Amino acid sequence: MIDRTSIEKDIGDLRRSAAGLEKEVKQLRDWIGQNERALPGMPEALRRITEDGLLKARADLALRENELQRLRADLARNERVIGKLTEIERKQRDIVALEQEQERIIVLLEKQRADLRLLQAEYEQITRPPTPLPPCEVVLPNNQRIVLNAQKGDHLIGWHDGAAAQPPEIDLQPVQGGANGVSRRHAVLRPVNGEWTITDLGSTNGTFLNEAPLAPNHVTPLRDKTRIRLGNLTIFFRYITQTTRL
Fold first, then answer.
1. Which residues pair with 12 in a beta bridge?
2. Of 191, 190, 189, 188, nearest to 130 (Cα)?
3. What would the pLDDT profile of 180-224 be if each residue is shown by its tens digit?
């Protein structure tokens, strides 16, 4: 692209040259006009000299007027070039500003989309019908079967010593839970997202699933036919409709 500085310098030079030529053209026109008016009253010898001078002056005037016309054309062209450069630079600035605004809008748009996805997920979670749990039960060492009620929610496993106001839902005192290392509040069975889970409540002697120890307060899903050892006492978790008699 043409350099703006060089074009502006050319415009300045052309304006000065044109101004000088305009002054010279005016002086020549004035001189020609004065002599043409004085020509009829001149003596013959002076008239011939003056006519020769006028002839040369008119030729010189024509050259200068042509040069002035050329300078004015060059000046007009350069001014149009500068005008277009100005428009291009303005448009470039507009594009940069719009690109920056576009980047900001894209960031905002992605944030709004992420927020929308989160809201939609929360909406689906709220409106999703609860997943029905298959009937499950816990079998104690004395073959007592305790059916788990998903609508009730948490089922505390422990043993009742008579001091607490209410025994746990799964009371292991009848099978000597306290003597076998079961804590009063040992673990909890809880339905979560369509399956039963177990969480050790920081018991003294720990909870084991098929002899694998559980970390305290860690939610672990239960599978069918799972042995749950609490201290030294083992109970069984099973799906009623999917298992045979133990």
1. none
2. 191
3. 999 999 999 999 888 999 999 999 999 999 999 999 999 999 999
Mean pLDDT check: name the lowest of 84-88, 121-125, 156-160, 172-176.
Answer: 121-125
| 24-57: pLDDT as tens digits | 999 999 999 999 999 988 999 999 999 999 999 9
Dihedral sign (CA 108, 113, 114, 118): positive
Angle at Cα 90 formed by Cα 88 and Cα 91, nearest 5°? 65
Euclidean distance between CA atoms 65 and 58, whole angstroms: 10
Return the number of other C-beta atoms located less than 10 Å from residue 176's C-beta: 14
Taking the complete model, does pTM exceed 0.70, yes or no? no
Q: Which two tokens stand for residue 145?
A: 């079967």
3-state secondary structure of 199: strand
State which amino acid sits at residue 172: L
> Which token pair is 56?
């040369």
Residue 225's contacts (CB-CB under 8 Å, 6 or more residues apart) are 236, 237, 238, 243
Residue 216 in tokens: 């305290």
